[in-house]
Known about the structure:
The chain starts with 5 loop residues before the first strand and ends with a strand. The protein is an alpha+beta fold. The chain has four helices and eleven strands; from the N terminus they run βαββαββαβββββαβ.
Amino acid sequence: MSSAAPVRLFIALELDAAPRRALGEWAAEPVARLRLRALAEEQMHVTLAFLGARPSSQVPALARIVAARAAATSVAGLALGAPLWLPQRAPRVLAVAIEDGAGAIEALHRQLRAALASEGLEQRDERSALLPHVSVARGRPRGAAREPLPRSPVSADFGASALTLFRSHTLPSGARYEALACAELATVAGPATSARASATEPRQMRTGARRSGRSVRRGA
């Protein structure tokens, strides 16, 4: 990867396996009925910061921010919310909202923004408030936003396992996500209800594509 070449980047939370499995099973019916392109369970995440096209020379600094925030944060007590179409005006993504009663995701989002700004790496375009959600399928079926969706699966009191810096590759077959740096979140001691600072040392930091070296692909 040339240090001068721009790369499209974003930072996302990776959820526990149980809610991702529940979302995959739930999405099967609307995917078949509306002819959508389903996302595999390992592709499901909660985006916290769209960074856009950046010089690849910024990746090491971004990876350090990811590692530092992950080591100081735990995210638990989450639940799956209502299904929704995004964006509202011209839906092309089927998603499920994430309920975060303790505000753990919002707190991490603010901390990330502050850390990015302190390094001169702040987001250049943040036109709307954070809406925590997980995309489960993509497509542009006519009238889809007016069709009823099944109730979202019941999955509560789960957490997030890692914070990851992703690179997005745009291909004719759809975007492919490459994990450039992945850091495990701080371990929750007992029932966790918020994102909080931790006195633990930084946990394991993984670089390169995650899950046995495989990249992550989604539908366009």
